[in-house]
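Translate sequence into structure tokens.
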Amino acid sequence: MIKDLRFLKVPNSKGGESVAIRVMTDKYYMVSIPSGTSKGGAEAVDLPLDVVENRFFRLKDKIIGLDENNFEQIDNLLEQADGTNNFRKIGGNLALGISLAVFRAAAKGDIWRLINQFSTTFPYPLGNVIGGGAHGGNTAIQEFLIVPARAKTMEEAINTNKEVRETVKQQLDARGWLTGENAENALTTSLDDIKTLEILSATAKNYGAAVGIDVAASQFYFDGRYSYNSLDKSLNPVQQLEFVENLVKNFNLIYVEDPFFEKDFDRAAQLTSKVKKCVIAGDDLYATNKALIAKGIEKQATNGAIIKPNQCGTVTSTINAAMLAKKAGFYLIASHRSVETTDNWISDFAVGLGAHMIKTGIIGKEREAKLKRLVEVWNAVDKPRMAKLF
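Result follows.
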């Protein structure tokens, strides 16, 4: 039984504060909630902390006394209390905070054990080596990612990402191209999108790793065109399709996320049909929304879906969306957010859902907390193995 519920604030990776919820059952269980910098239009709405705190006290008494094991009932209560389709009244950050805290209590701390979709496979960590776009950097493409696809263990995969990042950092610094780090602790440079892929691809090859990108195309789509400022290019949708297809082929990309404006399902479907052995993942396209994922399945828009619980606002909605995508044969990619806390629950979700990949970042205490948790769970499982990609 839920005996108490508390609202707290915790530091986040941008130097601000984020929502945290603590629930008391047999003991205290706490979660903290991240937020995104680049957000899709269909995401649950985060509200300011002072507003969230006010809404919390209106909900608290309705939840105390309920059974934490009936977490679906509590998630339904949250949806009914809000009454909108995106939590714009009580806040997606509050809804997920309460939902996750209750779920963690029901799981006695080990969320991955309770999701019930758990297998012995583990996700490859997608390492964000070089950043741009809305997260900060010189490129329009938001993330240049490393995929340690040959790693046999979680520790090997994590170490490969760190080694690639450090090697790239040294190369950039030596040539005067390094300009700093962004909010996700990814390197920022003075290079354009193509030169960035050239240097990352060459280094990845030396470590037996592959490369992926999060285009986050909605962030630089204006008046029907995609603006690549560092390349001095402005592309229409047909040209964008050709451009991304060539990137996949020229750099042997095995992962591409959000290559088009978030409502362009048809163009995404065209790309998915054209490239082989490459995960085309929808993030802003789907926003961890069951109805949007169903549309993507119908249109064969992608073969992968990003899963971010704070996009939909409850544990139940997250699991339902993920299982719909998985049943359709999609690759699942669990993901952190750019404004993170040191909580590690996304790692439990990745393992529990049987995700193929997880975006966590590479360095920084908020990012490394997730990686450490992946190793902990790996060591707790009998005969663990990395997921099969292709």
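Note: The chain has a mean pLDDT of 96.
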